[in-house]
Amino acid sequence: MKQIEELYNTYFHDVYLYIRALSHSDDIAEEITQDTFFRAMKSIDRFKGDCDIRVWLCQIAKNTFYTRCRQQARFSGDGIPETATDERISIEDAVADQEQAVRIHQILHGMDEPYKEVFTLRVFGELSFRQIGALFSKTESWARVTFHRAKLKMIDELEEQK
Q1: What does the buried/exposed string (b/e) look like for 50-89 if buried means 16 or more CB atoms within 10 Å of the residue's CB?
Q2: Fewer beta carbons within 10 Å, N or C terminal of the chain?
Q3: CA separation (Å) from 39 to 19, 22, 23, 97, 151?
Q4: DSSP 49
Q5: From the centroid of its chain, how far is CA 2?
Q6: Can you list the pairs that 39-48 forms with residues at least 24 positions away whose Cβ atoms lie under 8 Å?
Q7: What is residue 75's predicted lDDT score, i.e. its pLDDT?
Q8: What's the pLDDT at 80?
């Protein structure tokens, strides 16, 4: 129990910011973060230690958030949009646009690791390249290059979907 309390105190803010970036809502971020630590407490014995604990917690949070989104979409009847704007795509601008955000998440879901995780941590988790590199036990430059490659893959996929 002390281990979970220590994890909570150490990583609550990071997980909260990550989900806040995904949801754009303080209330949802608070709720998902609380649920994340509850789920982590139930499954801490399954944590293998092959990644940083922060990455593991953010993965739980992301899965919890996406599950919530799917459930809300099912109950609200909202579908996934089928068209995008015809302008050249900027990742930063596209994330602000809800329709493009859905497309980005779809592409991101199919992206290979580590590109998927690096992109998610940078764009949605708002982590620095130094922090991302540290999470993967790599250099800041590695994180920068990996993010750049992920961003190029994302842009290519978005351009193909036009």
Answers
A1: eeeebbbbbebbbebbeeebeeeeeeeeeeeeeebeeeeb
A2: N
A3: 15, 19, 19, 31, 31
A4: S
A5: 27
A6: 39/64, 40/4, 40/7, 41/4, 44/3, 44/4
A7: 54
A8: 41
Tokens coding 160: 């193909």
Peptide bond into 114 cis (omega under 30): yes
Query: Residue 92: exposed, middle, or buried by beta-carbon count in 10 A (0-12, 13-18, 19+)?
Result: exposed
Chain centre distance of CA 48:
21
Separation between Cα atoms, residue 59 and residue 126, nearest integer Å: 15
To the question of pTM greater than 0.85 for the whole model, the response is: no
Token pair 């499954």 is found at 43
